[in-house]
Amino acid sequence: MMLCSMGVFSSWAISFSLVRAGKVKLQHEATVTPRWYLKHIVPIGGLGAVSLGFGNYVYLYLSVSFIQMLKAAVPAVTLLVMTTAGLEKLHGTTLAGVVVVTLGTFIAVYGEVKFSAIGVMMMLTSEFAEAIRMAFYQYVLGNLKFDLVEGLYIMGPASMLFLGVGIVLFELRDFMENDGISLVMDAPHYFLAAALMGFGVNYLTLGVIKATSGLTFKVMGQVKNAVVILLAVVIFGNPVTAIQIFGYTLSIVGFFVYQKGKMQQQELAHKRGSH
Known about the structure:
There is one protein chain. By secondary structure, the chain is mostly helical. It has one domain (2-274). The chain has helices at 2-20, 34-40, 42-57, 64-71, 74-84, 92-108, 117-143, 148-177, 180-186, 188-211, 214-236, 242-274. Helix 3 (42-57) runs antiparallel to helix 7. The longest helix has 33 residues, at 242-274. The radius of gyration is 20 Å and the shape is globular.
């Protein structure tokens, strides 16, 4: 949580500096009332903390392979939440793409299963929290047209609040007992680089969600893993089984099916709009 908070804090600090310097103009000041902030932004911070907390603690209960199998369901869970919230419409080709990506990832990481009911509940809680957070992101960025820097500026305090609570409850004692401050001071450039890259990750994440959707972002996340692994096999000769190659290739095929479905949805929406 401390490492994650570095990226969140740098994102907020940089966006705050840009806003105060007049480089970025806040276009939704009238919209962001205390009541609106409590209803739309505070849940983003809370859901992020829940997703991060349960997503990390699950490693105490489940094997890595089983966790990856459960993570394969992330696009499907996100589609379910987005559809329920009215932010996505079910489309046959898009749905088929999500199913193929999920199936491909599941096949690629299939292995020895270390089952734990508590671990599975933690993982499902993490996935649903992340999917609901994506829905909030899509609503704020896509429907309300928030600028990316403005989004980081508005969302930063809520995220830092919940991460701060988590740090105090679960990490601060270990940090102090292990002299964490000395570890940071011994290599401050590493931590600074991590914080700045955290800003880049958060900015680009919001950019992808705004330009596409939270569902597309999650589907791309699964495909990214497949591409990285296949490149590692080709470039570095990393060992991989035939079933893993098949699974990851299937995931990439599923992404193209998903993209085709999205294009069909856009064409249909354009035709309806022209009429």
